[in-house]
Amino acid sequence: MVMQILSVCVAIFLFSAVLEVPRRHLFFAAAMGGVCWWVYVLILKEWESSMSAAFLSTLVVAVLSHILARVRKAPVTVFLVPGILPSVPGAAIYRCVYYLIRNASQVSTHYLVETLQIAGAIAMAIFITDSFFRLFLAYHVKKGDLAGKR
Questions:
Q1: At what angle do helices 105-143 and 90-101 cross, to 10 degrees?
Q2: Are the C-beta atoms of 84 and 16 separated by less than 8 Å?
Q3: C-alpha distances in angstroms, 126 versus 15, 58, 80, 141?
Q4: Residue 65: which residues within 8 A CB-CB, separation 6 or more?
Q5: Under a CB-based contact definition with an 8 Å cutoff, are residues 61 and 35 in contact?
Q6: Are 5 and 42 in contact (CB under 8 A)?
Q7: This model's pTM is above 0.85
Q8: Do 43 and 56 form a contact (C-beta atoms < 8 A)?
């Protein structure tokens, strides 16, 4: 598993460089990808559900991305986009199209549904985290705790 995580970190580092993530954030973007894959593998082993693994790994990465964005004074997307990449259902959509071309529509439909479920879980995790942080900041700005710190 350590080799998998290191491989993911290297791949995300290179992907982030292609996306032109600022150099000072490349290491952190790669670390987000490693964290995502680590949580994904742990949840997948425990629950054997790729949808749950994608949801929880994205939730963890989204929370860490929001925190890291505030600490590093960068947009959240700098860490979030590379961070969620390991949980994107690339293999499932590939299989969906492959079986569609092979005229196995029942198997293709299965993989399409799986792809949509995983994509929905990723979107829901990002939405929940973003909403939580917006509410948290709005509450503390209204209360006066974070006045002028935005």
A1: 150
A2: no
A3: 20, 7, 9, 22
A4: 32, 76, 79, 80, 83
A5: yes
A6: no
A7: yes
A8: yes
Let me know: does 89 contact 119? Beta carbons within 8 Å: yes
Which amino acid does the sequence have at 81?
V
Let me know if 57 is exposed, middle or buried by CB neighbors in 10 A (0-12, 13-18, 19+). Answer: buried
pLDDT confidence tier of residue 111, bands split at 50, 70 and 90: very high
Q: What is the pLDDT of residue 46?
A: 95
- State the Cα–Cα distance between residues 136 and 18, nearest whole angstrom: 33
Can you give the C-alpha Rg of the chain in angstroms? 17
User: Could you read off the pLDDT of 38-86 as tens digits, one per residue?
Assistant: 999 999 999 999 999 999 999 999 999 999 999 999 999 999 999 999 9
- Residue 8: other Cβ atoms inside 10 A: 21
User: Is the four-CA dihedral 35, 37, 41, 43 of positive or negative sign?
Assistant: positive
CA angle 48, 113, 80 (to 5 degrees): 70
Expressed in percent and rounded to 5, the helix, strand and coil fractions of the chain are 85, 0, 15
- For residue 128, count CB atoms less than 10 angstroms from its CB and return exposed for 0-12, middle for 13-18, buried for 19 or more: middle
Residue 150 predicted with pLDDT over 60: no
